[in-house]
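Case study 2.
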Amino acid sequence: MEVSLLLCLSILLILGGGCLGCLEEEKTGLLRIKASWNDHSYDILSEWGGKLDCCLWERVTCDENTGRVIEIDLSNMLDGMALLNATLFLPFEELRSLNLGYNYFSEFQGTLKLSKLQHLVLDGNSFTTMPSLQGLIKLEELSLWENKLTGNIPQTIGALSSLRMLKLGNNYLNGSLLPQVWCKLRNLEELDLSNNRFEGNLPPCLGNLTSLLYLDLSSNGFNGVIPASLFPNLNLLKFISLSHNYFKGSFSFTPFLNNSQLVVFDLVNYNKSLKVEIENPTWFPPFQLEVFRLSNCSLSTSTRDVPGFLLNQHKLTMLDLSRSSMTGKVPTWLLVNNTALEFLNIGSNSLTGPLDLHSNSTNLNLVLFDISSNLIQGEVPPYIGSVLPSLHVLNMSGNALQGSIPSSMDKMEELGSLDMSFNNFSGPLPKSLFMGSSNLRVLILSNNNLYGSIPKESNLIGLGYLFLENNNISGDISEGLLKSSSLELLDVSNNSVSGVIPDWIGNFSMLTSLVLSRNSLEGEIPTGFCKLNKLLFLDISENKIGPASIPPCANLSTMKYLHLHSNELTGPVPSALSEARSLITLDLTDNKLSGTIPPWISSLSNLRVLLLKGNRIQDSIPAHLCQLEKLRIMDLSRNNLSGLLPSCFNQITTFRRKAVEEDKFGNVDYAWAANLSSSTYSYDGELASFRYLFGVGNAESGEGDVVEFISKSRSESYAGSILHFMSGMDLSGNKLTGPIPPEIGYLSGIHTINLSHNHFSGPIPETFSNLREVESLDISYNELTGQIPPRLIQLNNLAIFSVAYNNLSGKTPERKAQFNTFDQTSYEGNPLLCGLPLERSCAPIGPPPATPPKATAKGEVGSWKAIFLWSFVGSYGVAFLGITAFLYLSSYYTELLFDFIEAHVSFLRLTT
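Prediction:
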């Protein structure tokens, strides 16, 4: 018995206490970690200290033989920002794995002196700099994914010769990949540098990392040619992602001839400058792909058909060949060969022919099918719903498909998004489609030849986005839509819908965009409109709405874009708009509004576009318009405005400076993410920018703003990113008087100025030469006098210029630069103007007058006055003597003269 006890004590001394659990110093070290994080951590470590043996504590793993701590997992511990002190881990000399992921660490203090550490996970924190890695000579796995790392990768990474996995994705790292770092990592099996800001060329020595299994360089700024030496020796690669970079030149698939392991190849390029050679010569690769994405590249094949090697691929779950310049027939054989296919995108090519689906080949796995923006013709097979019953997303838009929409689509019970827009479909709106999938979230049937009314029965209880614009739909707005209580966007514009806007429209409590423009709707906006508290975008222009406009009860606090133009609205500008503090676009063009521009309009501080053209608004232009500092387009033309033009428009910041991208109206795109997950890939599908190029601020709606404004002497519609840069002011067709304020010349960022058809007088301000960005300047049909400022020839962007029909004089501007392009219509109607392109020469006709002798200014004026006086007296003297002599010689005419005087000059008559 004593011998056994002595033996145990000896083993305890040798192994450091293994028989009784972990070392006391490691136990103390763990308790110090717990104490230091108490103020920031969730109550996960509450059990630490409850048991004597720390090897039994949660998130701690010990070596079974030595009892030393070899693994600590402290991921997802903290609920607040904290610093990471490396000295806390000094007691753990045998530590091999440390996981500190998904906490709120912002800074790494000190150096980890853990010479036996093999796995270090710091994902999901807020580190801005790479921690010191000196001394981690056995490190095999390093993961700093999804932090806030900046700068270039430190060269000390190259010293980690045992490294097998390096994950630095989703950071802000930049610079180029230095060969002296990467060429030494010969044992690397997994490299993830995705979603950073790296740039430059890929180092060819990456091709020497022959152990690589996983390579992800996607979503960076890499450019140049993909090195030909990159892949020939990487025969173990299973995953390659080079997407979302800027590669150019030529890239060949030949190096993969010896790779039998490849499963995923992902290359969606950011430009079309990359030419991909797939079948030169024809080949049959040894691998079986599961994911193949080759998009926005130029395929180099003999026929530009779908790559032939895909005929021998039978395990594909995702195939994306969109925007790859393919021609030929629609490759529906891909569905037959790959029964596990879940995602097929062959959109934006030049594929032709009919959509030839096999009626006896049902594909139960396909969830996304995109054939949009091709040249596909004919009718959609009537049995499409039976052969593709599991679809979540179907996009056939932008083709030449015709006929009716198949009724079998109601069998696609999982369908969430259907886009059949921009085709030649005809027939009535299919009732079967409206009675189909209750999961349908997005339905886009716009730009076809569909007719009839909106079905009165519907099962689309999950519908959020309905696009029916640009068809021949008639009838009223059907109550069948009420089943879609979650509707966020409704667009029925440019149809023949009639009747009134129903009061039940207010039941759509989630509605953010309502577009009913270019129909035959009449009556007033109903009071039900007052329930739409989330409305961001409203367009009911080009109807017969009126005479009243917006109900006083309307809540417009969230409204951003309001288009009511070309209706029959009367009365003053609606006072309900005074609460629309988020308004960006206000379009009341071509109505019958009267009164004045209200003073509360200056409170609309976010307003970028103000369109009041073609109304009966009167009085002067108020100075409080100058408080709209973000205003980019202002159109007050064709009203009854009078008085002087305010001199304060130079206070509008956006008129004064060159436009920049920050002057945003909203997001450029709206995208609906399908969020469809599969066993191998998660596909977030950007389906469309939903008919407009310009979104509504925070992607809460798919509608976009389109602004019509007269620029360069013609009406233009501005949409998309151009609205960030367009600026203009149109005050034409009013009764404005007085001089043009010289401050107008300081609007150096404006593109269009139209002051024509008013009564402005005085000279053209010399300051107009400061309008560096102006492209159209029209001050015709006024009463301007004086000369055209010669310095206007400095306006190098000027495309339209007119000073016609004023009282200008002198010489036309020198025919240089842009002014060499203007013809006589720019100057006509000014009788005292001369010079090209007018036919009136400024040179005098006949011999030049004699040059008077030189004199002082005062003496010169005096001499000419004397000459004029003597010539005047002489002329009248000669005339008087001539008349007297004539009367003296002719007694007959003398008698007639005195009879005339006696008859008409009464005070000369004699009275008795």
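The longest helix spans residues 857-889.
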